[in-house]
Amino acid sequence: MMNEFFTYEFLQNAFFTGIMIGFLAPILGVFIVVRRLALITDALSHVTLTGIAFHLLLAQTFTFMQLMSPLYMGMTFAVAGSLLMEKLRNVYTAFKELAIPIILSIGIGLGVVFISLADGFNNDLFNYLFGSIITVTREDLSVISIVTVVVTGLLILFYKELLFLSFDEEQASVSGIPGKWINILFIIMTALVIASSMRIVGILLVSSLMTLPAASAIQLSKSFKQMFLYSIIIGEFSVITGIISAFYLDISPGGVIVLVALSILLIILGCKKIHVGTSRKKMSYTDNNT
Amino acid sequence: MGEYILEDPIVKVTNVSLKYGNQTILENIDLNIEKGEFLGLVGPNGSGKSTLIKTLLGLITPNQGDIELFNKPLNKFRQWERIGFVSQKANTINTGFPATVYEVVSMGLYSKVGLLRFLNRKHKRKIDETLESVGMLEYKNRNIGELSGGQQQRVFVARALVSEPDILILDEPTVGVDTSSVQQFYQLLTKLNQEKHITLLLVTHDVGVMTSYVSNVACLNKTLHFHGTSKDFQESDLSSLYGHDVQVITHDHEHGGRH
Ligand SMILES: Nc1ncnc2c1ncn2[C@@H]1O[C@H](COP(=O)(O)OP(=O)(O)O)[C@@H](O)[C@H]1O
Ligand SMILES: [Mg+2]
């Protein structure tokens, strides 16, 4: 692969993007998993698809758009969807989880209509759904690099507030943490990372890359810091394995990435089962009204 | 606590009423908490104790009435580090959360440290000191979920204490804690009140043990039925104060023999 790596630009783009995604998605996944928001990632990834479909539709009329990456429109839709979701969660305070199926329906409904209008049920769509290593452009790589730097910076700056809000939202707000704004910031970051991950993992599998490594890490971790470390290791391993097998076997990377992450989770759960005595009842915590 | 009477109260609740739908949960509550007081707020389950606490912490907005914290109206109050709070949920939620005792206690400092800033060495020393004061320093690097209910409760108290608050509010802190730890826990609270002069508001539905530790008692059941010294409370006739409420009366008899 080394030779090809230096020969083909697309491979470099895919590889570097993958490294960044394998880092970002699991990190955000840590917060998403402990806050019980895993389903939000599904909703937002479908909204991203809607944005992409909208781009494809517009590109038929406005030809200049064919030269642009659909990533921008995907990101715009994902961010708009995330803000709408936050809004809905405050409307249905007693049934916050209702926001998820509402956004998901909007995403799929509009998405399918746009795709049909754009005559887009083709190979392109397949790549967006399941990921691809040949479609990442230099432009995508630059945008995703910017997202990586910005999101990582924000996570470091707001780490302590995010940790407190994840652990106990009510206590955090009593101690004067501006929970509302930080939640909005967080969901926007999630939207950006989901849209960025789409090229490599694919819309349908983004949420798995966010949640599976964190689900494994929570089994292994004593501290919150450790959970990041394990999530990143598992995330990177899955993504790199996925990209390499996609290259050699000519398959979609998304599927392999998710299968690797899933296998790791199953192995960890299996080992835990054997060590019953030492288990810390990780999965048993009660609902905290997400 | 006569010697404090000249100062303004730390918490001032005036004529607060609150409804959920048509159901009145709190009615015309007046309650002042003076500096240095150890107040026990008692009442049967569902009497509105947690609701009152959440209201005076600004988590719920009342339909009527005023709340002042440290002489500031609630909506203008910003010095949240002066208030330590251990919620009723604290001992039931997130025990599977991957956080160490140290991480949990550090959360109590976050708002004091401020946005976009990080914990420094002084803060870390403060966390150690606070863990020491609740007798949990040796568990510093343990996962919070590995601890017993009583130990977790101490960690949550440490989190509430680490910002050096003037008042500590505890909502049913001893639920799920074994009986021997409960006594120890009350002794810890008494020590904080007497040695560190922290004002305490302890919420409980268990009238028995508590009365021998607190200085004052307030009885809540939608309205405030009694507010006076612990001694007066023990001598008073609870049954007349609580009207039809049988639950508290039986509770009182159960524990009455010890006093
Ligand atoms: N979010 C809510 N919506 C509607 N009713 C509530 C809500 N929270 C509490 N209540 C009701 O308010 C009453 C007082 O509850 P609470 O303050 O938790 O009592 P306590 O803490 O004294 O046990 C109960 O009847 C409870 O059912
Ligand atoms: Mg309660």
Q: Secondary-structure map with pairings?
A:
The complex is a heterodimer of chains A (290) and B (259).
Chain A: H1 2-7, H2 9-34, H3 38-61, H4 71-91, H5 99-117, H6 123-130, H7 138-157, H8 159-167, H9 169-174, H10 179-201, H11 206-220, H12 224-249, H13 253-274
Helix pairs in contact in A: 2-7, 2-10, 2-11, 2-12, 3-4, 3-5, 3-10, 3-11, 4-5, 4-10, 6-10, 7-10, 11-12, 11-13, 12-13
Chain B: E1 11-20, E2 23-33, E3 38-42, H1 49-56, E4 64-69, E5 72-73, E6 83-86, H2 101-107, H3 110-113, H4 121-133, H5 149-161, E7 167-171, H6 179-195, E8 199-204, H7 207-210, E9 216-221, E10 223-229, H8 230-235, H9 238-242, H10 246-256
Parallel strand pairs in B: 3-8, 3-9, 6-7, 7-8
Antiparallel strand pairs in B: 1-2, 1-4, 4-5, 9-10
Bound molecules: adenosine-5'-diphosphate and magnesium ion.
Give a written overview of the molecule:
Chain A has 290 residues and is an all-alpha fold. Chain A is built from 13 helices and no strands. Chain B has a single domain, classed as Rossmann fold (3-Layer(aba) Sandwich), CATH 3.40.50. Chain B is globular and about 45 Å long. Chain B is 34% helix and 24% strand. Chain B starts with 10 loop residues before the first strand and ends with a helix. Chain B is an alpha/beta fold. The longest helix of chain B is centred in the C-terminal third of the chain and has 17 residues. The C terminus of chain B is likely disordered. The chains are: A mainly alpha (290), B alpha/beta (259). At the A-B interface, α8, α9 and α12 of A face α2 and α3 of B.
Element string of chain B (H = helix, E = strand): EEEHEEEHHHHEHEHEEHHH
**Widest beta sheet: strand line-up of chain B:** 6-7-8-3-9-10
Q: What does the oligomeric state look like here? A: heterodimer
Mean pLDDT over the full residue set of chain A: 90
Bulk shape of chain B: globular
SSE pattern of chain A: HHHHHHHHHHHHH
Number of domains of chain B: 1
How much helical structure, as a percent, in the residues of chain A?
over 70%
What's the number of domains of chain A?
Answer: 1
Q: Structural class of the secondary elements of chain B?
A: alpha/beta
Which stretches of chain B are poorly predicted, pLDDT < 50 over at least 5 residues? 242-259
Please name the CATH architecture of chain B.
Answer: 3-Layer(aba) Sandwich
Q: Using the coordinates above, name the CATH class of chain B.
A: Alpha Beta
Our estimate of the beta-strand percent of chain A is under 5%
CATH topology of chain A: ABC transporter involved in vitamin B12 uptake, BtuC
